[in-house]
Amino acid sequence: MLLESLNKTALRRILEIDQLVRSGTGPTTEGLAERFCVTERTIYRDLAYLRDQLNAPLAYDRGEYHGGYLYTDATFVLPANFLRRAEMVGVLLAGKLAAQSPGQPRGAAFAGLIERLRNLVDSQELSVIENEVAAFDYAARRVWRVDPRIVEAAGHALRRRRQVRADLFVPGDDLDRANWRPFTFEIYNICNLNNAWYILGREVESDERKAVPLARLKGFRELSKRYSVPADFNLSDALSDAFGFRLNEPEHRVQLHFHGRAAHLVAEREWHPSQRIAFQPDGSLRLVLRTTNLEELARWLAGFPGEVRIERPEELRRLVCANARKLLDDNECQ
Questions:
Q1: Which residues contact 103 (CB under 8 A, 6 or more apart)?
Q2: What contacts 24+ positions apart, CB below 8 Å, involve 125-132?
Q3: What's this model's pTM, rounded to 2 decimal places?
Q4: How distant, in Å, are the alpha carbons of 15, 94, 278, 284, 285 from that of 281?
Q5: Are 311 and 266 in contact (CB under 8 A)?
Q6: Which value, in Å, is the radius of gyration of the alpha carbons in the chain?
Q7: Do residues 177 and 207 share a domain?
Q8: What pLDDT does residue 66 have?
């Protein structure tokens, strides 16, 4: 059975007793009672729970430790049934989600942990849990493939606060030419946004703060030069713009007018933290928001052909029109 009866205080106490016994110091009931400020009777109940419910190979030794407790099997670990059922379900769901994100740091280690937990749970109980987990799934689309070793290397450089050097791919119109350029970067944070891994920080060559997809880097290596993460860098601020990262770019006030089917589709979701929506008497919808990423917003608006009018800013309207003309020209449309 999965643990359902212990309160948090008792759970923390039993976990610590397990660590003390495992250390080989031979804790006594008197010493444990004094450590946790409880009676010896409570400690005896905890030890009985370890032995009888969790199958701990607990033994009382009168010799070397003068009345202390030890494990007769040094390989013993607390079984997975020490977890509550809801906690085990959460672990398996996390494993499903991690499997949808290529390049997950320590992904193989996490998968191994989940497999060990599966092996420790009673087979009948595991069947019930897996039936519950099977009711949920994650559909990942437009996943950027990235070498897990690059994600790990980026994390190592960030922990050591050392600059990195790589070749950065820059998308362009010339498909016959390899658009790679040298790139030196100081990593402030590593973030997975919409199933893509990014490094956020300062590009040394341009002295600008940027968010760079790790999938566009090759030849990734750590340098000896060190740096400090600026005190004014805040990940929450960088993620505050739903249409990309916000890193010192100017902010634009956007006003959009949706009609028809699009008005109801837009009203169903929160597209941006700053958004304000208002239905008009004719059933259309006005959406107002602030963003720093007009390019990404223009790509989003392309999904509502004939159903949206850009009221401001003019820069966004010109960008959407330019993108539409390119699409028409590329497909030889009149």
A1: 145, 146, 147, 148, 150, 151, 197, 214
A2: 125/1, 125/2, 125/81, 125/85, 128/85, 129/85, 129/88, 129/89, 129/92, 130/92, 132/89
A3: 0.59
A4: 62, 45, 10, 7, 9
A5: no
A6: 28
A7: yes
A8: 63
| Cα distance between residue 229 and residue 276, in whole Å | 34
What local confidence, expressed as pLDDT, does residue 178 receive? 61
311 contacts 287 by C-beta, under 8 angstroms:
no
Range of 66's domain? 8-78
235-283 confidence digits (pLDDT tens):
777 776 656 666 667 888 999 999 999 999 899 888 888 889 999 999 9
Task: Provide CB contacts within 8 A for 158, sequence distance 6+.
Answer: 187, 188, 189, 190
Structure tokens, 234: 């805040």
Token pair listed for 233: 């860098």
Q: What is the pLDDT of residues 78-114, one digit of tens each?
A: 765 566 778 788 888 888 777 766 566 666 777 777 7
Number of domains in the chain: 4
* DSSP classification of residue 271: -
Residues 124 and 64 occupy one common structural domain? no
CA atoms within 13 A on the CB side of 140: 15
Residue 2: its pLDDT value, please?
45
Angstrom distances, CA of residue 150 to CA of 103, 104, 200, 213: 8, 10, 14, 11
